[in-house]
């Protein structure tokens, strides 16, 4: 436990207690989500579970800050092992068999930092970050990172100016609405659902050297929130009945293919857009009505996002070949239809800003974020530089693996 003095009372930072802190935490969340007047704002309903966004991680902790037994802030953190680079492995029998192997590191992730508006500028945010970093170090994490909006100047200033973080990666969050009509999936593509073991084999063989790839990918794929992994191949190459398994598939793959998995955020939290004008609400409702009664028009209708709605998150997106972008587009259409069946309002994903397959991901610019900001910090100088040196100074790769457990 860490205590420090404020202008009037001591600020106590301690572990979150599910039995007594839930309502206090929810109250702070509500007060922190008051958007500017006259502008659209996104609100999150954690469905009565303040740690829902970290509880699927290998290790997690939530801290609260209180003054005179009143909760005035909170922070969440989780720890996992991920790929931070790659090294060349030399096969002793045949040097032509050289291949790259992943280099792993233990990394911590901070999310959900909140300070009550009535208690800001008292150093409470800094105290929460400092305390959770102590737990990161005690647990052996070598790096800590956070994701924040590029224009959230208060958050960026706290982490870069006061906490020693540096700007690291700028992935794109791509969001597409779920329409009242189904999307057509190209007839030139066959979509095959993979079981968790087949999906794991494919991901480990093809994407384990991708930055931030989780070493416990099997836990992610076997989690009940993963609705499935889907592979797109040219029609006529494989069918669900003739699928030989990932090992045989990768030993002789088709010219082009793509893969992605779907995570069910709908059972973790709900979102809601507030602040819409009557005109906006009317136009959105009209688009849905027309789409529902005339689906053959394929109108890009606005879903009911002005009341609580769910989303599906697409992760593990990858592929190869000259038609991989088209394969990705087909998979996104398939994922859209899956979300429609589940009653979700949007489908989202997050990819590196330089991801070549990004062109195949349908999205609305107004709903998306072109540059999400990830900041990183090395937690200790006594760690070995290993095979990749200091990760915080490494250049970005083309792709990045975004863990759905942290979205």
Automatic annotation (TrEMBL):
One of its GO terms (molecular function) is acyltransferase activity, transferring groups other than amino-acyl groups. It comes from the Eukaryota. It holds the Pfam family Acetyltransf_1. Gene3D superfamilies: 3.40.630.30. Keywords: Acyltransferase, Transferase. Residues 11-192 form the N-acetyltransferase domain. The keyword Transferase applies. Belongs to the acetyltransferase family. This is N-acetyltransferase domain-containing protein.
